[in-house]
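Exercise 3.2. Students should predict the tertiary structure of the chain below and write it as C-alpha coordinates, then compare their answer with the key that follows.

Predict this chain's 3D structure.
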Amino acid sequence: MDMFYINNGFSVYDQTEGNKLVYSESPEHHSSNNVRKLPISGIGIDETVYCINPMREIVTDIFDGIQLKINMPFISAEFDSINSGWLEGSSPINVTIAPLAENFFPWQYEIIFTGDSAYSTQTTRISSFKDLNLNIIAESELILDYAFPFYVINKHSIDSTGAYEKLDLVVHDVNSNAIFEPDSDYVLVGHMKDLSTDQTKKIFWSGSVFAIDFFNVRSETEMPQADDIYRVDFKRPFVETDTLKITLNLEQVVDREKLADTMDKIKVVPNPYIMTNSMEAAVGNRFLNQRRRLMFTHIPARCEIRIFTSSGVLVDKIDVENEPSNGIVHWDLLSKEDLEIAAGMYVYHVKSKEIGKEKVGLFAVIK
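Answer key:
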Protein backbone atom coordinates (compact mmCIF):
# COMPACT_ATOMS: atom_id res chain seq x y z
CA MET A 1 0.00 0.00 0.00
CA ASP A 2 1.45 3.36 -0.99
CA MET A 3 2.08 6.06 1.55
CA PHE A 4 0.49 9.21 0.17
CA TYR A 5 2.09 11.75 2.49
CA ILE A 6 5.84 11.24 2.59
CA ASN A 7 7.92 14.23 1.56
CA ASN A 8 11.05 13.45 -0.47
CA GLY A 9 12.10 16.97 -1.45
CA PHE A 10 11.25 20.66 -1.67
CA SER A 11 11.51 23.60 -4.05
CA VAL A 12 11.95 27.35 -3.57
CA TYR A 13 10.40 29.84 -5.98
CA ASP A 14 10.93 33.59 -6.32
CA GLN A 15 7.51 35.24 -6.52
CA THR A 16 9.05 38.56 -7.49
CA GLU A 17 10.24 36.94 -10.73
CA GLY A 18 7.06 35.14 -11.76
CA ASN A 19 7.53 32.12 -9.48
CA LYS A 20 10.95 31.39 -10.93
CA LEU A 21 12.49 28.19 -9.52
CA VAL A 22 15.64 29.22 -7.64
CA TYR A 23 16.46 26.11 -5.57
CA SER A 24 15.31 22.53 -5.14
CA GLU A 25 16.34 19.27 -3.52
CA SER A 26 15.13 15.80 -4.47
CA PRO A 27 16.29 12.17 -4.34
CA GLU A 28 18.23 12.86 -7.54
CA HIS A 29 19.88 16.08 -6.35
CA HIS A 30 20.31 17.11 -2.73
CA SER A 31 22.84 18.61 -0.36
CA SER A 32 24.70 16.28 2.01
CA ASN A 33 22.23 13.89 3.71
CA ASN A 34 19.21 16.20 3.46
CA VAL A 35 17.30 13.51 1.55
CA ARG A 36 17.80 9.88 2.60
CA LYS A 37 16.43 6.46 1.82
CA LEU A 38 14.97 5.01 5.01
CA PRO A 39 12.83 1.98 5.89
CA ILE A 40 9.27 2.53 7.11
CA SER A 41 6.67 0.12 8.39
CA GLY A 42 3.05 0.23 9.44
CA ILE A 43 -0.29 -1.38 8.76
CA GLY A 44 0.08 -2.99 5.36
CA ILE A 45 3.39 -1.18 4.79
CA ASP A 46 6.95 -2.47 4.78
CA GLU A 47 9.20 -0.66 2.35
CA THR A 48 12.11 1.73 1.91
CA VAL A 49 11.42 5.26 0.72
CA TYR A 50 13.22 8.51 0.02
CA CYS A 51 12.31 11.24 2.51
CA ILE A 52 13.58 14.48 3.99
CA ASN A 53 15.98 13.37 6.68
CA PRO A 54 14.10 13.26 10.03
CA MET A 55 17.26 12.62 12.04
CA ARG A 56 18.82 16.08 11.76
CA GLU A 57 18.22 19.71 10.97
CA ILE A 58 18.80 19.94 7.26
CA VAL A 59 20.69 22.92 5.87
CA THR A 60 20.47 23.97 2.23
CA ASP A 61 23.27 25.25 0.05
CA ILE A 62 23.46 29.04 -0.20
CA PHE A 63 21.32 30.47 -3.00
CA ASP A 64 20.58 34.11 -3.75
CA GLY A 65 22.33 35.00 -0.49
CA ILE A 66 19.93 32.77 1.48
CA GLN A 67 20.44 29.53 3.41
CA LEU A 68 17.42 27.66 4.78
CA LYS A 69 17.28 25.38 7.81
CA ILE A 70 14.43 22.86 8.00
CA ASN A 71 13.36 20.50 10.76
CA MET A 72 11.22 17.51 9.72
CA PRO A 73 11.12 15.26 12.82
CA PHE A 74 9.05 12.45 11.30
CA ILE A 75 8.83 10.60 7.99
CA SER A 76 5.12 9.92 7.69
CA ALA A 77 1.94 11.26 9.26
CA GLU A 78 0.74 10.17 12.70
CA PHE A 79 -2.15 11.00 15.00
CA ASP A 80 -1.42 13.99 17.24
CA SER A 81 -2.97 13.09 20.58
CA ILE A 82 -1.49 16.13 22.36
CA ASN A 83 -3.18 18.68 20.10
CA SER A 84 -6.42 16.73 19.74
CA GLY A 85 -9.34 17.19 22.12
CA TRP A 86 -11.84 19.80 23.20
CA LEU A 87 -11.31 23.38 22.12
CA GLU A 88 -14.65 24.32 23.68
CA GLY A 89 -16.65 21.98 25.91
CA SER A 90 -15.84 18.89 27.99
CA SER A 91 -18.33 16.14 27.20
CA PRO A 92 -17.00 12.56 27.78
CA ILE A 93 -17.41 11.45 24.16
CA ASN A 94 -14.97 8.99 22.60
CA VAL A 95 -13.20 9.61 19.28
CA THR A 96 -11.50 6.56 17.79
CA ILE A 97 -9.05 7.07 14.94
CA ALA A 98 -9.09 4.68 11.99
CA PRO A 99 -5.76 2.77 11.80
CA LEU A 100 -5.23 3.84 8.18
CA ALA A 101 -6.39 7.45 8.62
CA GLU A 102 -2.85 8.75 9.02
CA ASN A 103 -1.88 7.14 5.70
CA PHE A 104 -4.73 8.62 3.69
CA PHE A 105 -6.39 11.48 5.60
CA PRO A 106 -3.84 13.10 7.98
CA TRP A 107 -5.51 16.52 8.18
CA GLN A 108 -6.89 18.73 10.92
CA TYR A 109 -10.59 18.18 11.62
CA GLU A 110 -13.09 19.90 13.89
CA ILE A 111 -16.37 18.47 15.17
CA ILE A 112 -18.68 21.45 15.61
CA PHE A 113 -21.79 20.95 17.73
CA THR A 114 -24.85 23.10 17.03
CA GLY A 115 -27.61 21.91 19.37
CA ASP A 116 -30.03 21.29 16.49
CA SER A 117 -30.10 19.40 13.19
CA ALA A 118 -27.02 20.67 11.35
CA TYR A 119 -26.07 17.89 8.95
CA SER A 120 -27.69 14.95 7.18
CA THR A 121 -25.93 11.96 5.64
CA GLN A 122 -24.98 12.47 1.97
CA THR A 123 -23.69 9.01 1.05
CA THR A 124 -26.07 7.11 -1.23
CA ARG A 125 -24.00 4.09 -2.29
CA ILE A 126 -23.05 1.72 0.53
CA SER A 127 -21.74 -1.42 -1.17
CA SER A 128 -18.60 -2.74 0.56
CA PHE A 129 -18.97 -0.18 3.35
CA LYS A 130 -16.21 -0.84 5.92
CA ASP A 131 -15.74 0.02 9.57
CA LEU A 132 -12.55 1.49 11.07
CA ASN A 133 -10.81 -1.87 10.93
CA LEU A 134 -11.74 -2.46 7.28
CA ASN A 135 -14.42 -5.03 8.13
CA ILE A 136 -17.49 -5.01 5.87
CA ILE A 137 -20.59 -3.55 7.55
CA ALA A 138 -23.91 -5.10 6.53
CA GLU A 139 -26.34 -2.69 4.89
CA SER A 140 -28.83 -3.45 7.65
CA GLU A 141 -26.37 -1.91 10.15
CA LEU A 142 -26.21 1.46 8.40
CA ILE A 143 -28.55 4.44 8.76
CA LEU A 144 -28.24 6.82 5.81
CA ASP A 145 -30.98 9.35 6.55
CA TYR A 146 -30.04 10.58 10.00
CA ALA A 147 -29.86 14.29 10.88
CA PHE A 148 -27.03 15.10 13.29
CA PRO A 149 -26.73 18.01 15.77
CA PHE A 150 -23.13 18.53 14.66
CA TYR A 151 -20.97 18.53 11.55
CA VAL A 152 -17.27 17.88 10.81
CA ILE A 153 -14.95 20.06 8.73
CA ASN A 154 -11.53 19.47 7.23
CA LYS A 155 -9.49 22.60 7.93
CA HIS A 156 -6.92 21.64 5.34
CA SER A 157 -9.32 21.75 2.39
CA ILE A 158 -11.49 24.51 0.92
CA ASP A 159 -14.47 23.68 -1.31
CA SER A 160 -15.70 25.55 -4.40
CA THR A 161 -17.66 28.02 -2.24
CA GLY A 162 -14.61 28.99 -0.18
CA ALA A 163 -15.83 27.10 2.91
CA TYR A 164 -14.05 24.27 4.67
CA GLU A 165 -14.78 20.83 3.24
CA LYS A 166 -17.43 18.94 5.23
CA LEU A 167 -17.04 15.24 5.92
CA ASP A 168 -19.93 12.82 5.73
CA LEU A 169 -21.54 11.18 8.76
CA VAL A 170 -23.09 7.69 8.80
CA VAL A 171 -24.61 5.82 11.76
CA HIS A 172 -23.29 2.32 12.38
CA ASP A 173 -26.45 0.79 13.81
CA VAL A 174 -24.88 -2.07 15.74
CA ASN A 175 -28.12 -3.92 16.62
CA SER A 176 -29.81 -3.18 13.26
CA ASN A 177 -32.96 -1.69 14.78
CA ALA A 178 -32.87 1.38 12.46
CA ILE A 179 -32.68 3.71 15.49
CA PHE A 180 -29.60 5.66 16.55
CA GLU A 181 -28.93 4.74 20.18
CA PRO A 182 -26.08 6.84 21.65
CA ASP A 183 -25.19 4.20 24.24
CA SER A 184 -24.43 1.50 21.65
CA ASP A 185 -24.15 2.92 18.10
CA TYR A 186 -21.24 4.67 16.42
CA VAL A 187 -21.11 7.69 14.13
CA LEU A 188 -18.60 7.05 11.37
CA VAL A 189 -16.88 10.15 9.97
CA GLY A 190 -15.30 10.00 6.55
CA HIS A 191 -14.63 11.57 3.19
CA MET A 192 -17.01 11.13 0.29
CA LYS A 193 -16.72 11.15 -3.48
CA ASP A 194 -19.51 12.83 -5.43
CA LEU A 195 -20.09 11.18 -8.83
CA SER A 196 -23.60 12.53 -9.26
CA THR A 197 -25.03 13.42 -12.66
CA ASP A 198 -27.93 15.65 -13.61
CA GLN A 199 -30.13 12.60 -13.53
CA THR A 200 -28.77 10.58 -10.61
CA LYS A 201 -27.33 11.34 -7.19
CA LYS A 202 -24.28 9.15 -6.63
CA ILE A 203 -22.19 9.85 -3.55
CA PHE A 204 -19.73 7.19 -2.45
CA TRP A 205 -17.99 6.77 0.91
CA SER A 206 -14.24 7.23 0.33
CA GLY A 207 -13.03 5.99 3.68
CA SER A 208 -13.45 6.41 7.42
CA VAL A 209 -11.23 8.81 9.34
CA PHE A 210 -12.60 8.31 12.84
CA ALA A 211 -15.68 7.21 14.77
CA ILE A 212 -17.58 9.07 17.49
CA ASP A 213 -19.45 7.36 20.29
CA PHE A 214 -21.33 8.60 23.35
CA PHE A 215 -21.03 5.44 25.46
CA ASN A 216 -19.63 7.28 28.49
CA VAL A 217 -22.24 10.04 28.49
CA ARG A 218 -24.48 9.28 31.46
CA SER A 219 -27.12 11.98 31.10
CA GLU A 220 -28.44 14.61 28.73
CA THR A 221 -26.60 17.32 30.66
CA GLU A 222 -23.28 15.65 29.78
CA MET A 223 -23.98 15.72 26.04
CA PRO A 224 -22.01 18.26 23.96
CA GLN A 225 -23.66 21.68 23.89
CA ALA A 226 -24.15 24.21 21.10
CA ASP A 227 -20.85 25.86 20.05
CA ASP A 228 -18.71 23.08 21.55
CA ILE A 229 -15.76 22.15 19.31
CA TYR A 230 -13.64 19.00 19.36
CA ARG A 231 -10.42 18.88 17.30
CA VAL A 232 -8.85 15.80 15.70
CA ASP A 233 -5.33 16.55 14.51
CA PHE A 234 -2.42 14.77 12.86
CA LYS A 235 1.29 15.48 12.74
CA ARG A 236 2.46 15.17 9.17
CA PRO A 237 5.21 16.16 6.76
CA PHE A 238 4.50 18.88 4.24
CA VAL A 239 2.73 17.71 1.11
CA GLU A 240 3.01 18.88 -2.48
CA THR A 241 0.18 21.39 -2.10
CA ASP A 242 1.68 23.02 1.01
CA THR A 243 3.53 26.31 0.67
CA LEU A 244 5.46 28.51 3.07
CA LYS A 245 5.87 32.14 2.07
CA ILE A 246 9.16 33.72 3.12
CA THR A 247 9.47 37.50 3.00
CA LEU A 248 12.97 38.92 3.24
CA ASN A 249 13.45 42.18 5.08
CA LEU A 250 14.02 44.74 2.38
CA GLU A 251 16.69 47.38 2.82
CA GLN A 252 15.34 50.11 5.04
CA VAL A 253 13.65 52.90 3.13
CA VAL A 254 15.81 55.99 3.29
CA ASP A 255 14.31 59.05 4.96
CA ARG A 256 15.92 61.60 2.65
CA GLU A 257 15.17 64.58 4.85
CA LYS A 258 16.48 62.86 7.97
CA LEU A 259 19.61 61.71 6.13
CA ALA A 260 20.29 65.25 4.93
CA ASP A 261 19.95 66.59 8.48
CA THR A 262 22.27 63.88 9.78
CA MET A 263 24.96 64.71 7.23
CA ASP A 264 24.98 68.29 8.49
CA LYS A 265 26.19 66.87 11.82
CA ILE A 266 29.24 65.05 10.37
CA LYS A 267 32.32 65.56 12.52
CA VAL A 268 35.92 64.38 12.71
CA VAL A 269 37.02 63.20 16.16
CA PRO A 270 39.47 64.22 17.50
CA ASN A 271 40.02 67.47 15.66
CA PRO A 272 42.83 68.43 15.72
CA TYR A 273 44.45 65.00 15.71
CA ILE A 274 47.77 64.98 17.61
CA MET A 275 50.07 62.26 16.33
CA THR A 276 52.49 60.51 18.64
CA ASN A 277 56.08 59.86 17.66
CA SER A 278 56.33 56.97 15.22
CA MET A 279 59.30 55.62 17.19
CA GLU A 280 57.03 54.76 20.14
CA ALA A 281 56.62 50.99 20.51
CA ALA A 282 52.81 51.07 20.54
CA VAL A 283 52.77 52.89 17.22
CA GLY A 284 55.55 50.96 15.57
CA ASN A 285 54.22 47.50 16.55
CA ARG A 286 50.91 46.65 14.88
CA PHE A 287 50.18 43.98 17.49
CA LEU A 288 50.01 46.56 20.28
CA ASN A 289 47.18 48.98 21.04
CA GLN A 290 46.97 52.74 20.48
CA ARG A 291 47.04 52.41 16.71
CA ARG A 292 46.59 55.74 14.93
CA ARG A 293 43.10 56.43 13.68
CA LEU A 294 40.53 59.19 13.68
CA MET A 295 36.79 58.83 13.51
CA PHE A 296 34.09 60.27 11.25
CA THR A 297 30.68 60.47 12.95
CA HIS A 298 27.10 60.75 11.57
CA ILE A 299 28.25 59.16 8.31
CA PRO A 300 25.55 57.80 5.89
CA ALA A 301 25.44 54.00 5.68
CA ARG A 302 26.24 54.14 1.97
CA CYS A 303 28.63 56.89 0.97
CA GLU A 304 32.10 57.77 -0.28
CA ILE A 305 34.61 59.72 1.78
CA ARG A 306 37.49 61.46 0.00
CA ILE A 307 40.34 63.08 1.92
CA PHE A 308 42.46 65.82 0.30
CA THR A 309 45.43 67.93 1.28
CA SER A 310 44.78 71.68 1.59
CA SER A 311 46.22 72.05 -1.93
CA GLY A 312 43.67 69.58 -3.38
CA VAL A 313 45.76 66.42 -3.71
CA LEU A 314 43.73 63.24 -3.10
CA VAL A 315 45.16 61.46 -0.06
CA ASP A 316 42.74 58.56 0.41
CA LYS A 317 39.28 57.32 -0.49
CA ILE A 318 36.95 55.28 1.75
CA ASP A 319 34.00 53.39 0.25
CA VAL A 320 31.42 53.00 3.03
CA GLU A 321 28.84 50.18 3.07
CA ASN A 322 27.70 50.09 6.68
CA GLU A 323 24.59 48.76 8.38
CA PRO A 324 21.92 51.52 8.54
CA SER A 325 22.41 51.83 12.30
CA ASN A 326 26.18 52.34 12.06
CA GLY A 327 27.14 55.97 11.43
CA ILE A 328 30.82 55.70 12.36
CA VAL A 329 33.83 55.24 10.06
CA HIS A 330 37.46 55.05 11.18
CA TRP A 331 40.50 56.14 9.14
CA ASP A 332 44.03 54.94 9.82
CA LEU A 333 45.73 58.20 8.75
CA LEU A 334 47.55 56.42 5.93
CA SER A 335 47.50 57.56 2.31
CA LYS A 336 46.13 55.42 -0.51
CA GLU A 337 49.76 54.35 -1.05
CA ASP A 338 49.76 53.14 2.60
CA LEU A 339 52.19 55.89 3.66
CA GLU A 340 52.01 57.95 6.84
CA ILE A 341 50.45 61.38 6.22
CA ALA A 342 52.21 64.60 7.10
CA ALA A 343 51.05 67.20 9.59
CA GLY A 344 48.79 69.90 8.25
CA MET A 345 45.25 70.83 7.30
CA TYR A 346 43.11 68.31 5.42
CA VAL A 347 39.81 68.54 3.61
CA TYR A 348 37.22 65.73 3.76
CA HIS A 349 34.41 65.33 1.24
CA VAL A 350 31.47 63.00 1.99
CA LYS A 351 28.93 62.13 -0.71
CA SER A 352 25.82 60.05 0.01
CA LYS A 353 25.10 57.29 -2.51
CA GLU A 354 21.40 57.43 -1.65
CA ILE A 355 20.53 61.11 -2.03
CA GLY A 356 23.68 62.59 -3.57
CA LYS A 357 24.10 65.17 -0.82
CA GLU A 358 27.66 66.29 -0.16
CA LYS A 359 29.39 67.56 2.96
CA VAL A 360 32.81 69.21 3.03
CA GLY A 361 34.82 69.92 6.16
CA LEU A 362 38.32 70.43 7.57
CA PHE A 363 40.46 68.70 10.14
CA ALA A 364 44.01 69.24 11.34
CA VAL A 365 46.83 66.80 12.03
CA ILE A 366 49.51 67.97 14.44
CA LYS A 367 52.86 66.30 15.10
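Discussion points: The first helix runs from residue 101 to 104. Residues 190 and 207 are 5 Å apart (CA to CA).
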